[in-house]
Design goal:
Elements: H1 5-25, E1 32-36, H2 40-53, E2 68-72, H3 80-90, E3 95-96, E4 99-100, E5 105-109, H4 119-130, H5 132-139, E6 143-147, H6 149-158, H7 160-164, E7 168-171, H8 200-205, H9 226-232, H10 266-271
Parallel strand pairs: 1-6, 1-7, 2-5, 5-6
Antiparallel strand pairs: 3-4
């Protein structure tokens, strides 16, 4: 019996998922994994399966502390490290049997929604990615970034430091769908035990003295609406530190190796992938 393309895709995607799961089960610290998936529904299915398959409980404490936490990217301030720090501040690893529980693995979803955001917000996201590596030693855990293919294609040029420090890339097969049809995935909301003190590495992530101005990356003469600037600069107290001032962002249209993005204006290159 001849297998249909959909059956072949499903089998290939399951193998890719199994490799992703195995990589995380090895328990290696500070892994930076990129999961490429153009179909948000397929992405949500595997993200939920990953959270379930790697989940565990702390029987001695009588409460559940997750092994995997799914966070939807904040489009107002697309800083994944800040969101992780905020979650850890709200749900610090509990002390169980005299030892502090291991930090969970974090998976970031919703990056495809940046397609409908302004060029300023998209560039801000790439600049935040540039600083992920510097914060990995403080996290002591791995991060899985779920991204559609056009965004992954832009990483080598627009976030080269992030691309260089990646641990592995896992490519899932699937057709893109309009971002307006994407259902928001379920985020971990289970009540977590709180210790009396935050681990020092979390304190460092929340140290607001090292916070830069998030608008440092803006090019001279770029006209940014006042309301957008206000949104980008809001709630700085909760943002994780970026160790150096942000450099001028790289234009994603410069020498992108993927044929689909060549000679296509920056803003059109992402939007056309979902039309």
């Amino acid at each position: 019996m001849t297998e249909l393309p959909s059956d072949l895709n499903a089998g290939s995607n399951q193998q890719t998922y199994d490799r992703l799961t195995l990589s995380l089960q090895l328990g290696l610290r500070r892994q930076l994994l990129i999961a490429v998936c153009d179909d948000p529904r397929e992405r949500d299915r595997f993200a939920a399966q990953l959270q379930q398959d790697l989940g565990r409980s702390a029987p001695s404490a009588g409460t559940i502390y997750p092994s995997v936490v799914t966070l939807v990217l904040d489009l107002g301030d697309p800083n994944p490290i800040a969101q992780i720090a905020q979650w850890l501040n709200q749900y610090p690893p509990p002390i169980i049997g005299g030892q502090r529980a291991t930090m969970p693995i974090f998976q970031i979803v919703g990056i495809e929604q940046l397609t409908r955001q302004s060029l300023v917000v998209q560039r801000l996201f790439f600049n935040y990615l540039q600083n992920v590596e510097r914060n990995l030693p403080r996290l002591e855990s791995g991060i899985v970034f779920w991204m559609p293919r056009p965004w992954v294609n832009g990483l080598p040029q627009s976030a080269p430091e992030f691309w260089r420090c990646r641990t592995a890339v896992f490519e899932f097969i699937g057709d893109p769908m309009p971002t307006t049809q994407v259902e928001e995935p379920v985020v971990s909301t289970a009540a977590m035990p709180k210790p009396t003190e935050l681990p020092p590495e979390i304190d460092e992530l929340l140290d607001d003295e090292a916070l830069p101005d998030p608008t440092d990356f803006l090019e001279d003469g770029l006209d940014v609406p006042a309301d957008l600037l206000a949104e980008l600069t809001a709630d700085l107290e909760a943002i994780a530190p970026l160790d150096t001032s942000l450099d001028t962002p790289l234009d994603i249209t410069q020498d992108v190796p993927d044929d689909d993005l060549q000679d296509v204006p920056y803003e059109e290159s992402y939007e056309e992938s979902y039309e």
